[in-house]
Design brief:
Helices cover 20% and strands 32% of the residues. It is an alpha+beta fold and 101 residues long. The strands form three sheets. The chain has a four-stranded antiparallel sheet with strand order 2-1-7-8, with helices on one face. The two termini are 24 Å apart.
């Protein structure tokens, strides 16, 4: 399962991914994650990122070319089960997104 991390940078450099082990999910619709599962996963990641930010350890995306980083400000979770090695550019994915406070 992939969680997309977003910064304020509107380019490809402002996006990152974090892969999780596959959760035990019994709520699927036509082999896609149900909206409730997407929302629960997104909210859990928001709480984790907010906790790290509040503890003075904000999560960011590092840029090799500039040796700088941008802080993650939002989280996206899609309804397709993702894998690190598989391209799935032919699937239309519905995403839920929320920003950190």
């Amino acid at each position: 399962m992939a969680v997309s991390l977003r910064t304020d940078l509107p380019t490809k450099g402002g996006r990152g991914r974090n892969f999780l082990a596959s959760p035990v999910v019994t709520t699927v619709v036509n082999q896609l994650l149900a909206t409730a599962v997407q929302t629960a996963m997104k909210n859990a990641w928001l709480r984790a990122l907010q906790h790290m930010k509040d503890a003075a350890f904000p999560v960011g995306i590092y840029h090799r070319l500039t040796n700088g980083w941008d802080q993650v400000v939002a989280v996206d979770v899609g309804d397709v089960f993702d894998e690190m090695t598989t391209r799935r550019n032919q699937l239309d994915e519905v995403r839920v997104r929320s920003g950190l406070s």
